[in-house]
Specification:
With about 190 residues, this protein is of the alpha/beta class. The chain is built from six helices and ten strands, in the order ββαβαααββαβαββββ. The strands form two sheets. It has an eight-stranded mixed sheet with strand order 5-4-3-6-1-7-10-9. A two-stranded antiparallel ribbon has the order 2-8. The two termini are about 20 Å apart. The relative contact order is 0.25.
């Protein structure tokens, strides 16, 4: 069975986007070699990326661009090369390199994907996707980077979860920039 992990950056108060839907607060203002090394290694770790429509459109608009290649050529190269899946009932086509569009129900579609042979699955961002898959018990690992910022309002990656999720800490890492990576697995 394929493993499914989610990777999300959150504020200290648990939001992945602020009240206006913005997540620019998660981008470092200065070059941070330690953080860049981690991000590049994480992006290059392989797998098949899984998105909802909103995150897919945001990522597809940026990562194939010359600006992305100039800003972070290593990450841009990895993300553009990886296989990608977008779940959407409204998109007509997915044009980003190596992307396939799945129009079926998210939860059932991911259940089927986990049964197929292939690389592990990684949800980047996509808060509503993470929330639905967490509620269905399909996420094998939650990778969260806690940023040292309080937003006050926004959306959490678990906003539609109604049942308690009991988790255990698998590993953690603290960065000099104040970010903390915490990885949890179902208990």
């Amino acid at each position: 069975m394929r493993k499914l992990s989610s990777f999300t950056q959150v504020s200290l108060d648990g939001y992945f986007v602020d009240a206006k839907g913005d997540m620019s607060w998660a981008k470092p203002k200065e070059v941070d070699e330690e953080w860049q090394s981690f991000v590049g290694g994480n992006a290059g770790s392989g797998g098949e990326l899984l998105f909802g429509r909103v995150t897919y459109q945001m990522m597809a608009a940026f990562w194939p661009s010359p600006a992305a290649a100039q800003m972070d050529p290593k990450v841009a190269g990895h993300i553009n090369a990886l296989p990608k899946i977008v779940f959407s009932r409204t998109l007509e086509k997915a044009e980003w390199n190596n992307t396939r569009l799945i129009k079926s129900d998210l939860v059932e579609g991911v259940r089927r994907l986990k049964q197929d042979a292939g690389p592990h699955l990684v949800v980047l961002g996509s808060g509503s996707v993470v929330s639905q898959l967490a509620q269905a018990g399909l996420v094998d690992e939650f990778q969260m980077v806690v940023n040292p910022v309080v937003l006050g309002k926004g959306r959490t990656p678990f906003e539609t979860v109604t049942d308690r999720l009991k988790l255990k800490l698998a590993r953690s890492r603290t960065f000099r920039n104040g970010n903390v990576l915490v990885c949890y697995e179902p208990a």
